Amino acid sequence: MSVSSWAWLVLLFPLLGSSAIALGFRVLPEKAAGAIGTAAIGLAFLCGIGALVCLLGEDPEARHHASSLWDYASAGGLDIELGIYVDPLSVFMVLVVTGVSTLIHLYSYGYMQSDAGIRRFFSYLNFFVFSMLLLVLAGNFVLLIVGWAFVGFASYALISFWYRRTTATRAGMKAFVINVIGDIGLVFAAILIFRELGTFDFGPVFERAPEAFTTNEWTITAICLLLLVGAFAKSAQLPLHTWLPDAMEGPTPVSALIHAATMVTAGVYLIARTHPLFELAPTAADVAAFTGLATLLVAGTMALVMTDLKRAIAYSTMSQIGYMVMGVSIGAYSAGLFHLMTHAFFKALLFMAAGSIIAAMANDQNIDRMSGFGRAMRFTSVAFLCGALALAAFPSTSGFFSKDEILAFAEARGGMYMIFTVLGYVGALITAVYAFRLVFRVLPGKPCKEAQELIETGHVAHGEPHNPATGEPEDTDVGFPGSEHHIAEQNWPMRTAMGVLAFLALFGGLVQVPGVDDLVTSFLEPVFHDSPLAHIHPSAGAEWRGLGIGGMISLAGIGLAYLLYVARPELPAVLRRRLRPLYTLFVNKWYFDEAIDLLVVRPALAVGRFADRVFERIVVDGLVNGTAETVRGAGGVVRAVQNGFVRSYALLLLIGVAGLALYFLLSAS
Amino acid sequence: MNIEWYVVLSALLFCTGALGILIRRSPLVILLCLELMLNAGNLALVAFSRMVGNQEGQVFAIVVMVVAACEVVVGLGLIVAIFRRKLPLNVDDLRELRG
User: Fold this and answer.
1) Buried/exposed code over A330-354 (b: 16+ C-beta within 10 A; e: otherwise)
2) pTM, whole model, 2 decimals?
3) How far apart are CA A613 and CA A617, in angstroms?
4) CA A265 to CA A259: how far, in whole Å?
5) Which domains does chain B have, with CATH numbers?
6) pLDDT at residue B99 above 70?
7) Which residues in A lie closer than 8 A to residue B92 (C-beta atoms)?
8) Cβ–Cβ below 8 Å for B98 and A654
9) Contact yes or no for B99 and A641 at CB 8 A
10) Every domain of chain A and the residues it spans
11) CB atoms within 10 A of CB A532
12) ipTM higher than 0.90?
């Protein structure tokens, strides 16, 4: 079988799974829905491996295939095919997406089993994976936009999955609206590309671009900036990030799948995919790199002070994606994608462990109330610790190798790019501190009430169901979280998924150790071999020096967290008092929501109110009602004649005929 | 005989019929009055035909009679239908079509 046949199969299985579950909504048993969903993604993963094996059997120069099924749209010189583009980059993304998704489906099979909406859940989840695969396999910009929009919709549906929670539906809408802003940027970019190059297909676009544009010409810069709007909205980069923390209203497996491992990396993929364009517009690439840098620092500071477990991890996701965006924008393509892969492993793991802990807390997400889970939930704690170690880039874990590779590349590129290395290390310190802040606040210490109950009776705590954001009481019917909670200790699917991810989070980085092996870079090399930037390689010595610095910073961060949260727990309060303005800024999320509210939402509402109260009431209503009143008035006049008396009609008839007769008689004489 | 007498008689008959339609309320009488008006027209047609000296006016009068017969059929049918439904046989009470 050829590479493209495998790729089509990768797309087919999630689509089949989603449709089968959606159509069999009423007849499928709950377990079967979960099993079908998981199996569909598992099969897609196997087909992805098939594509990988096929691709590796080919000559590196020939490792790109375009294949199309039929014309998707064809009119007026526009010829768009339903086509896919398979090369090492898309196969890499397919493997990461399907691999992590399979594990998350398995986890959901256990975690969501008591939810009344589990069939809907798996149908959405499969649809999401299908959309994401369409996005990474698309062979032209139109299909990319289709996948991009599908992903946005799937994200909306899954964030609002508990649709009777008002906070969840509002968060879903917010995510959808911000994602649509990104879609618009992407659509305009595609239109500009078509206008300049006359095609939407990736291959010809990247071939013709260097001839059609001169470096930093305004059109190519505009195209790249518009692409970045799409990338920033999807990848939650400043200032379009505010939807991501709110998206934590969705079920925890959704947070793990969409808002950590896959969907939010679409922006990184987009920049890597369109790198020939970005290399022609270095200004736009620098804008992206600085935005990534700003995001990683700002999000890191917010993660330092969040008291909501899932939101803290969400800010950490933003921060890590900041590293990736920075990486692929400065030319460290394979390093950025390598970090994407390791991040998918450890962040999905962190979310899964957090989900298990939240379940044990009966859906309470406030870390101020959590403590002592190290004794109560051994497996979950170990998994959480593995994830946190990888996130903090503890030496030899996966995050250790991938993050430092980006920073080493920035250093090797030199000049202005040294800023990225230096501030990247600052970000790494913040990362280590907030990662272990969570660990030290949740795992050690005297067990809290729920943890104590788990230790003594082995039962998961059963609080009154309530909304973690507002504290409102909740039902356990469809549209609300299910009645029972499931923790990894008592649930084999969750345990399996977390175990595999913990292994990958700890050892996944070993595929690319400087000076030893470089599986990811050499696999992705054919995609980037035309790029002048991809030939900058930091020497193994420089990389090891960077790794040494990174390791020390990581250990320092963990030590600092230990000092703050274990050794001298009174210190954070003192710091909070001393640095009150900073703390207020961080805890209010740098006032981004308020700023957007002031600059965008309020003016838009004012325009809407004007349109409603003035334009609509006076102009539109005036026209419509005026017409109606005129017709009614005229009707009133005629109506008086229609009194229903036959003889009055007869009289009118008579008068009329007499009048006519008189007229003719008079005019004749 | 002079044509004027025929025309005057025809006009008198027509006015009687028209007046009857305007003031009477029984549908049966209204039909009779209609018939009166049609026949007034017939009289005028036949008289003019004689005056002019050809038969076209008389042919027209026969056509009017046919039409009158049809009209009576429909009108009486309506009256029977009204009677069967026990509605008042009074045209002023049957004014559902008022605007």
Assistant:
1) bbbbbbbbbbbbbbbbbbbbbbbbb
2) 0.78
3) 6
4) 9
5) 3-84 (1.10.287.3510)
6) no
7) 645, 647
8) no
9) yes
10) 290-448+487-582, 593-668
11) 8
12) no
